[in-house]
Design goal:
three-stranded antiparallel beta sheet; alpha/beta; homodimer; about 425 residues
């Protein structure tokens, strides 16, 4: 089997005005869809981060890919991954995911790996999860992922979307948002994006969620490094009960040192709430110092920037070996990424928490997979009985996404600029803020 | 694709009277050959440890395998691997490889995984290395593996083999053995099995090898835990020059604690010779304490007992992450195991030393792969342009191996019993001996 064509499509999708410590989501999220077509006319697809830089990095691979054997491409490209194992702090503390130049090579590699696996699977009639070691589960659980948000469903002008969830800038409104999300998707755990309002308000939000949902629904809170070590410890103490039983405290303070300090102090107080991270720890190079300092007890991996599905499986075994939990980070995405997450999760024995997904924040009208949105039922994505990733491209929908991209000025993700544009002209991301 | 039949063949092959700290190799080494046949009539093969216990463990899987999809078998069986992550010391300090009941499940799993990969590869026309991530190299380097030995080529009675290498119980004889092995196979590094004669004689053996082969040929020495920490440090000091430049000191003292103590004292003397291990560290459960104590700088993995090819790849990434070197352990084996080692090595980027192989000690007359022995040229096995493992079974040769097994009394490996039977009726394995 040989690659005949490699196509890269920049698309934009409406994204609601979600808030985090990074700032504000723009009206559009940017994604890149790729196609790898074999000489037999079968096409493997994948989805990754969007905007100019990822597209350019992918297009630069075209010459190497044409004529190559999809079974061998990952081996051929592997030496180019150039993981940095010297030192650490290749982190997302100061950069939103997808905008970190230090993981550009692993992001590019990952995008191509998954497209190869989809092409191989579609060519031989095998689901991707069974190509990479075999499924250990058929259903992959995801969490509700509530955000504080402004009113609006995303998009601009004629492309403005209905505001399904409304404004949510108080504990009560956030609880309402979560209940709606659970009613629609059946999620059985909640990952709450914090770092936006005063910590006292965010503590109250978790307490209200706990009261309303009961102790059977694991709660997680993620302020994306917005807090000092002291504040992190205070929150951990205030929410010791609410974050127990499958919950975690995610990236409260900045950096591996900050996380290690929070962990140490909470343990001294007898509070064993695990600290999770997709900010302090984003590459294999971060792991030795994390392990040596017990800085992170749950790694939130992401095949998109860790270097693909097989690297995630390596990471999972490493985490299992060091008794570190594993879950999955997400970014605004469509159904191809959701299915890729589900496939690698299905073939990864050591997955100890329901995965994150932004999928509820995206909309049917922007979906590029044939047949519309991937169903999430009882909080789970089920691996379909179809080859490859189990989804194919709707070329008309893809064209709409490309047109949307052409018509907007956004070419990279910049949540700080959006915050200044729409909310507060003087806003700056300050770490720690509280 | 579904499995129609699963066949397990116990065979015996002549093995010369090689010595190690475990004792003496029996006149026959035991191996198990398995066949997984699909409904399409294609057969995947593999080779693993031999004797009654491995055969029984494999046969016990038959019911689960018949009717299963080879793409899904590894996922289906994964929960049964039951790695022990609680505590450590699942080691081969006191047991020869293949006779450790604690890794029976991973050995059984590995045997089936590789047979599935061979079957898949042969069914879709793809080499195994390209099914598991894609080759990063086409040629896999192996080391010369000299042993002190008694006269005799192995086998018994009419099955007695010509003694190709002769007795080697002195430094000079061992140098001669190595030179012959290098002349035949082109090896470019040497792994010397020690722990047999007085350490002063073994030091002298390495010194003679160094003088005769020159500093361009990396030298490694492996006494299989035969030494005290003091003796290990003395040997490390005496051979600081000879083991530098790609050499290592393998399992000098018993256990992770012993290894860590040797490492610490050598470093204090300014000697940075890496310590390698396939005895103190034989499972993922051993790794955290190894890392925490800097006990091992080179892991000698073995897909046969680490749980298969993908587990070896996980291990390699873990080793890379913690800046630990990786090479490969071997046991007496035929061409199927050699090809499996070559395939996983080809698809494992982080492989930092030439691999071990006992293959020169086995003979053409016992080989079960069609076309005879797998060629080793310039010290390397080249991945052939053939699907699966690239080798198939010679059924006549297999039958001869089974007949040999039926005709001999050996049903497990017991080097201590052999030592008593042939060399010294009162011999016991004593750790440490020196």
């Amino acid at each position: 089997m040989k690659i005949k064509d490699f196509r890269v499509h920049a698309i934009a999708i409406a994204d609601p005005p979600l808030r985090s410590s990074y700032g504000l989501h723009a009206p559009y999220a940017l994604r890149t869809i790729i196609e790898l077509e074999s000489e037999d006319g079968i096409t493997g697809i994948n989805e990754t981060y969007g905007g100019e830089a990822p597209v350019a990095a992918l297009l630069a691979m075209k010459e190497q890919l044409i004529g190559a054997d999809p079974f061998r491409i990952t081996g051929m490209l592997n030496p180019e991954m150039k993981y940095s194992h010297d030192g650490y702090d290749r982190s997302q503390t100061f950069k939103v995911p997808g905008e970190n130049p230090l993981d550009e090579t692993t992001r590019t590699f990952a995008a191509i790996e998954v497209a190869c696996l989809d092409l191989i699977g579609k060519s031989i009639g095998v689901p991707v999860c069974d190509l990479i070691g075999g499924r250990v589960r058929d259903k992959v659980a995801f969490s509700a992922y509530p955000f504080y948000k402004h009113a609006g469903g995303g998009g601009e002008g004629a492309d403005t979307r209905e505001d399904e969830y409304g404004e949510a800038l108080s504990p009560g409104a956030l609880v309402k948002q979560v209940k709606k999300m659970i009613a629609v998707y059946g999620f059985e755990s909640v990952k709450f994006k914090a770092g936006v309002l005063d910590p006292a308000v965010e503590i109250e939000t978790i307490k209200q969620l706990y009261r309303e949902l009961g102790p059977g629904v694991p709660l997680r809170i993620d302020p994306n490094s917005a807090w000092t070590v002291d504040t992190s410890v205070e929150v951990g103490k205030a929410l010791a009960v609410e974050l127990s039983g499958g919950g975690y405290l995610e990236d409260p303070a900045a950096g591996i040192d900050g996380m290690a300090a929070v962990r140490k102090r909470l343990l001294e107080m007898g509070i064993d709430t695990p600290l999770a991270s997709n900010v302090a720890i984003t590459s294999f190079g971060d792991i030795p110092v994390c392990v040596a300092n017990d800085a992170v007890q749950v790694i939130l991996c992401d095949h998109h920037y860790w270097g693909g599905m097989r690297q995630v499986q390596h990471l999972a075994k490493l985490a299992e070996t060091f008794k570190i939990g594993l879950s999955m980070h997400s970014n605004s995405h469509l159904g191809i990424s959701l299915m890729a997450m589900a496939h690698v999760a299905a073939a990864t024995p050591h997955l100890t928490y329901a995965c994150d997904t932004h999928y509820p924040w995206q909309q049917e009208k922007d979906e590029v997979v044939e047949g519309g949105r991937v169903p999430i039922k009882d909080g789970c994505v089920t691996i379909p009985d179809k080859p490859g990733l189990g989804v194919s491209l709707d070329l008309d929908q893809l064209e709409r996404g490309k047109e949307r991209y052409r018509n907007i000025p956004y070419r990279k993700r910049d949540d700080e600029a959006e915050m200044r544009r729409h909310i507060d002209p003087g806003w700056k991301r300050i770490l720690p803020r509280w």
